[in-house]
Amino acid sequence: MKGLLLKDLLLLKNQQRFFLLFFLMSAGMLLADFNSVFVINYVTMIFSLFTLSSISYDEFDNGYTFLFTLPITRNQYAAEKYVFGVVTGGFAWIVVTIFAVAMNFFRGRAGAGELVGMAFLYLFISLLFLAVVVPVQLKFGAEKGRIVLICIIGAIFAAGFVMIKAAKTLQLDFLSTAAASLSPGPVRAAVPLISLAAVFGSYLISVNIMKKKQF
Amino acid sequence: MLLEMENIQKTYGDFTLNCSLKLQPGYITGLIGTNGAGKTTLFKSALGLITLDQGEVKIFDRPFSQLSLKDRQDMGVVLADSGFSGYLTIQDIARIMKNMYQLFDQDGFIKKCRESGLPLNKRGKELSAGMKAKVKVLAAISHEAKLLILDEPTAGLDVLAREELLDSIREYMEPGDRSILISSHISTDLEQLCDDLYLIDHGNIILHEETDVLLGSYGLLKVTEEQIQKLDKRYILRRKKEAYGYRLLTDKIGFYRESQPDIIMEKGSVDEVITMMIRGERL
Predict the structure, then answer these.
(1) What is the pLDDT of residue A108?
(2) Taking the model in full, what pTM does it have?
(3) Distances from the Cα of B44 to the Cαs of A16, A146, A203, A214, B80, in angstroms?
(4) Interface of chain A against chain B, CB under 8 Å?
(5) Which residues of A touch B92 (CB under 8 A)?
(6) Would you list which residues of chain B are within 8 Å, Cβ to Cβ, of chain A?
(7) What is the spatial distance between Cα B244 and Cα A94, in angstroms, rounded to a whole number?
(8) What is the complex's ipTM, to 2 decimals?
(9) Nearest-angstrom CA–CA distance, B131 and B229
């Protein structure tokens, strides 16, 4: 696992410009007083995505074949992709959250606790995101994976749209009732649990995908 | 036995690999065959990269699925068409290998790379074919592996680079308790290096012989129509029609030298044996 993580970190060097650009962009957005929670969420998601590009690097030029002759298991490979996503996303999250809290302090605003709380919530939402994208990328590869992801995101939006339309047509107000009945406390408690459970389930799917792969 | 493949079978469309192979301790075993004969499929089977339809692969006397990661560290692998990402430098590879293999000699590897004139900070994709091949072999022999599996390690190399690489492989064998399974298109490489050879064609092993026997006892007989009628054909493996009559492959050239001194004979070479075994017809 250590060797795999190191490989992905060393490959990340090839994207250091992209890496820096996003840090500068997020610093710029925070300086320009964008919504801090949005910036933290955005940057964490983008940095988690480095795990997808690490999968592309692995499969490029027949790389998988040699990779799996090294002393690693297919389970470890799948697990490492989540760990790498958490490492890159987590690193970005820490840097940007500290910067956002500092900006909050310099602007003399209260609510740093609330900001950090929200930041934590989005950290777990990024995990949820990883839980969806990693198995898709492993199963379909870089090229097809992108199309499948677009389809999944499209389907989620379409489902939401249809639900709202249906609710309006049927003059049901269950969505707003349901939303209003949810108090923020339990929601915040549920998100980490759901995310962790989703990552675990996603890991099991990824292991299954990797075990079936023929190189 | 360091590597043993027992009646393994794998079918891809109309191609079926169906073979058995053994790699003895202290041996360098060569695998020869034309393009598409099944060499790569056999290597992938040996490395657990594909699931088999039938049969079993044992490494270090254990089924592949039961190998621990420590056992896997005792194997060094070079594949012709796959390697570390071309976006990594030699320095990067050294660091990764150090974290993958407990016995990886990082300083030794870097030293050998320097001696071979390899640029340590250039990315793999910027290196020449010869340099890439050299890095792959050096990485595979730098962690005290007991078993090396080398698929076309000399592919695309010029004579000097090939010789240098073969020297590295010979050096690796010096401790005496190591074994290598190697494939190559260049039969002279295998003639010089291997203790025994397997010839694969259409997914089947059609010949297995010690290299000394192959070079010493195998040979070609050039006979006319008249001569072939009278010939004792017990030790003739294949025949091929030629303008003058027939070209025959035997595994007992000594027998014919004594009994038929008037026939034109040539000592065997790996290339001749391959050609005759594949293109020739059985008697």
Answers:
(1) 82
(2) 0.88
(3) 35, 29, 26, 9, 12
(4) 2-3, 6-7, 10-11, 14, 57-58, 60-66, 68-73, 214-215
(5) 7, 10
(6) 44, 47-51, 69-70, 72-73, 75, 77, 79, 81-88, 92, 95-97, 99-101, 149
(7) 83
(8) 0.89
(9) 54
What integer is the mean pLDDT of B246-265? 92
Identify whether the C-beta of residue B86 lies closer than 8 Å to the C-beta of residue B123: yes
**Is B206 in the same domain as B254?**
no
Checking if the pLDDT of A19 tops 70, the result is yes
Task: Return mean pLDDT, chain B.
Answer: 92
d(CA A42, CA A209): 29
Task: Give the pair of three-digit tokens for residue A133.
Answer: 């994208």
Segment A84-103, tens digit of pLDDT: 999 999 999 999 999 999 98
Interchain pair A66, B83: CB under 8 A: yes
Statement to judge: residues B74 and B121 lie in one domain: yes
Range of the domain at B260: 217-279
Selecting from B51, B72, B96 the residue whose C-beta is nearest the C-beta of A7 gives B96
Whether A61 and B85 lie within 8 Å, measured CB to CB = yes
Class of residue A181 by CB neighbours under 10 A (exposed 0-12, middle 13-18, buried 19+) = exposed
Asked if residue B259 and residue B197 are part of one domain, the reply reads no
